[in-house]
Amino acid sequence: MAEITVTINGRQVSAKEGMTILEAALENGIDIPTLCHHQDLTPLGACRICVVEVEGSRTLVGSCHTPITEGMVIHTHSDKVLATRRMIVELLLASHCGSCFMCDKANICELRKIAADLEVGLPRFQMRKNYYPLEDISPYVVRDLTKCIMCRRCARACSEVAGHNVFAIAYRGFDSKVVVDFDQPIDKEVCRDCGVCISFCPTGALGKPREAKEEKRGKPLIITS
Amino acid sequence: MSKIGEGTNPQSQEKRDLLVLLERAQSRSGYLSKRTIAELAESLGLSIGEVYGVASFYSFLSIKPQGRNVIRICKSLPCYLKNAQTIIEGVRKEIGINPGETTADGRFSFELTNCIGACDKAPAMMVNDDVHGDLTPKKISKILQAYK
Amino acid sequence: MPEKRVVLANCGVIDPEDVASYIERDGFKALKKALKLPGEQVVEEIKASGLRGRGGAGFPCGLKWDLARKAQGDEKYVICNADEGEVGTFKDRYILENDPFSLVEGIAIAGHATGANKAYIYLRAEYHFLLDLLEKAIAQAKKKGFLKHLDIEIRQGAGAYVCGEESALMDSIEGKRGEVRYRPPFPPTKGLWGKPTIINNVETLMNIPRIVLKGAKWFGGMGTERSKGTKVFSVSGDVAKPGVYELVLGSSLKELVEDLALAKKVQAVQVGGATGRIIPGDMLDTPLSFETILGAGAVTVFNESRDMIDIVHRTLEFLAEESCGKCAPCREGTEAMAGILERFSKGEGLEKDITVLGELADTMMLASMCGLGQAAPIPVMDSLQHFRGAYDNRIRQS
């Protein structure tokens, strides 16, 4: 693939044609936060956390799906970009259930990590939250869709990595939801124990059933003064 | 009723025909039953969830049983400015149910919908595929009589 | 300026069920002329005319066609967007009801110019009652031998505003949920089923036979520097004469709403539907053009008795209901804005909400995946600019 030259954050760097902006940035040691994106999955562009400024573009562009082209001038951490990312995280937190201290995945939650990195605290506005009953009848996977942020990594991982097709997206807008069959709780009939989706879920929406005495996963938070 | 897609050979049905097939099933049976959805999924090689996902996306497709006639009153601004609320009230009184409900005899389902493109005849509503405009509460009874 | 009927020239004149009455009025003459020319030359003529898309975005039509014509592909598609879902728009309905033949002719010319041999008309579910008329028009044109190079198929929507957005529309034709796609790739290179595709609004395609027949120069003689030709408007709300009006681009909003539609005591006008600009009553001399305000030509008038916060709240509720839900800024942002506006409409706004609305607007405009989310904040920000007092009065006194 042909080498191209682009400018990222004021520095001239080289990239290869066919790469996305995200890949090119990563290769040059620039870290762009992502949520719905995962290197093993087809880009979706849904969460918009990875947006960057490309000079000449009216809007910000999703770096996970936009091909990099010769001469692009890109800002990955401008004020505009950071403000946008912060507001998206604030929105996701505002409709999120927010019970981190009770969440098994709190210490490895990507949403929480990004919120911390971007210094987003408590949302400044109230929003409707989608509360769904906990789905814990399957011996292999527990779904708590109240914690779902609609990144669809589970659905893509199930079809693209595990080779199944258990999940689908139903309804529309704020009511949209990752469903199984006729929007019924996931059970052992439809899903085996491959656990692929669990490892792809960035939040606490998917987890393994907790056995008695099992410790919370992840490293404990170490508070330093 | 819809002729769309009737030229499609049932043997060569493909995933790309899903919406057309759902629309056809809807106009045939009034709604998309679990059985219809499961059969379509089977024949097109899709998961039930995928078919359900498409069916639940579009507001003119219904995954709940519907009455024989569906009343859709426009609730968007141009109709709202022309007192659509009085039409909603009028229909509610006439058939005795609230939006989102179906009459016990299965004659009518009642829904509110977004702009139907009849703003020059606001307030307006659709009954099945028919558009009725320039409504007044007085006209409702007569209009609905035609739908059995 | 009085009305100028170019697009609507045949409306109410021909019999929409009889192709002979259309042929009598120079119908299909443009197609015959175009078919004798290489596609490239037709594209050049459209380019030279300055015709821009009438569906709201205003993309230069000839440029779109050129991209699709030059794109590599064994199959190419023309899509006519007849999913007129913008709140307050009904001009395409009026056009389809009265002159379906000009549309068929426009599509046929587009097929020849771009090298497509398959076309779809995506008709919104609410216009199901027009299906027979449209099918008849296509069948009659075919019988007369005008559609040898192109197959036209009608696909119906199933009730989703977002399907008027071109990428969601393509997903819908593909039988899927009408969700938005990220771009690039753009439709002229990779559209329907991954093939080069042009998507044009009904009104855009109606202009094509006129331009081909009378020439780019004639067309370019109407309008302003960057807005050529005429525009068909749908006027509704607080007016004595709601309806469809066609004006030369650059005419003022006043001519449309006061002189033609007979509006009185105008407080504000929303131009462009739910995501359109809100123009206060003292700015009615604003010209209607791509340079200023236009959208798809939905014009909704609010008189002095109307509560603007109620209006904007309802608009955002609509957009939240119709968001496809794929990208976070639109899915969550429209919901959050509707929630804040609901509080204002009840007199429970907070001072800090004004700041939050501004930040939400920036994020949605900059980061949403499609025009719905990008333009959803427009009525909110316009109302904050022009009717700030109404907001201040609704801030909770505590």
Key attributes of the depicted protein:
heterotrimer, A: alpha+beta, Ubiquitin-like (UB roll), Alpha-Beta Plaits, 2 domains, five-stranded mixed sheet, two-stranded antiparallel sheet, 5 helices, 9 strands, C: alpha/beta, Rossmann fold, de novo design (two linked rop proteins)
What would CATH call the class of the largest domain in chain A? Alpha Beta
Order of helices and strands of chain B: HHHEHHEEEH
Q: Which runs of chain B of at least 5 residues are low in confidence (pLDDT < 50)? A: 1-11
Query: Given the C-alpha coordinates, what overall shape of chain A results?
Result: globular
Number of strands of chain B: 4
Mean pLDDT of chain A: 93
Helix content of chain A: 10-25%
Largest sheet of chain B: 4 strands, mixed
CATH architectural group of the largest domain in chain A: 2-Layer Sandwich
Note the run of SSEs of chain A as H and E: EEHEEEHHEHEEHE
Overall helicity of chain B: 25-40%
* CATH architecture verdict of the largest domain in chain B: 3-Layer(aba) Sandwich
Task: Note the quaternary state here.
Answer: heterotrimer
Number of helices of chain A: 5
Précis, in short:
Chain B is α+β, with helices and mostly antiparallel strands and 148 residues long. Chain B has helices spanning 18-29, 34-44, 48-55, 77-81, 84-95, 137-145; strands spanning 69-74, 108-113, 125-127, 130-132.
What does this protein look like?
The complex is a heterotrimer of chains A (225), B (148) and C (398). With 225 residues, chain A is α+β, with helices and mostly antiparallel strands. Chain A has helices at 21-27, 79-94, 110-117, 153-161, 196-200; strands at residues 3-8, 11-16, 51-54, 61-62, 73-75, 142-143, 167-170, 177-180, 206-207. Chain A has two domains: 3-77, Ubiquitin-like (UB roll) (Roll), CATH 3.10.20; 88-207, 2-Layer Sandwich (Alpha-Beta Plaits), CATH 3.30.70.20. The mean pLDDT of chain A is 93. In chain B, helix 1 (18-29) packs antiparallel against helix 2 (34-44), helix 2 crosses helix 3 (48-55) and helix 5 (84-95) packs across helix 6 (137-145). A four-stranded mixed sheet of chain B has the order 2-1-3-4, covered by helices on one side. Chain B is elongated and about 50 Å long. Chain C is of the alpha/beta class and 398 residues long. Chain C has three domains: 19-220, Rossmann fold, CATH 3.40.50; 230-303, Ubiquitin-like (UB roll) (Roll), CATH 3.10.20.600; 308-392, de novo design (two linked rop proteins) (Up-down Bundle). Chain C has 17 helices and nine strands. In chain C, a hairpin with a 5-residue loop joins strand 7 and strand 8 (277-280). Chain C is globular and about 70 Å long. Chain C starts with 18 loop residues before the first helix and ends in a 6-residue tail after the last helix. Classes of the chains: A alpha+beta (225), B alpha+beta (148), C alpha/beta (398). Chains in contact: A-B, A-C, B-C. The B-C interface holds B 2-4, 15-20, 22-23, 26, 53-54, 57-61, 76-78, 80-81, 113-120, 122, 126, 129-131 and C 84-90, 92-93, 124-129, 131, 135, 154-161, 172-178, 193, 234-238, 242-244, 270, 300, 302, 306, 311, 314-315, 318, 321-322, 324.
